[in-house]
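INTERNAL AUDIT FORM
Audit reference: QA-55
Scope: verify that the stored structure record matches its stored sequence.
Auditor: D.O.
Record contents follow.
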Amino acid sequence: MVAGLLARFIGSYSMYFCVGGPAEVINGGSLSENRLFRKIDKPDPIIERRLIEAVKDFDLVITMGEGAISFFRQHGVDAQFHIVSGGIDGSLFYPSELPPSG
């Protein structure tokens, strides 16, 4: 979140990589894998709103799927989105009997 603020301050672009999807902000991030937010013992709508507001400051949000884009769009995030899949395309990468070349 500091990157978004710093970028505005210095007149640069900022990017947020949303690896965990909406869980990173829903209920204040209490369901995320973030060690700090996991300490929240109950849903916190105030932290959730502040996290969403922070995401609005980024120029580019990279997600791993359409679900996160839909969530953020529904909550007023007007950033540019880009999907970077966490999976491997099995039609391009598959086991081979041949030794590696190069």
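Auditor finding: record pair retrieved intact. The mean pLDDT is 86.
Action required: none
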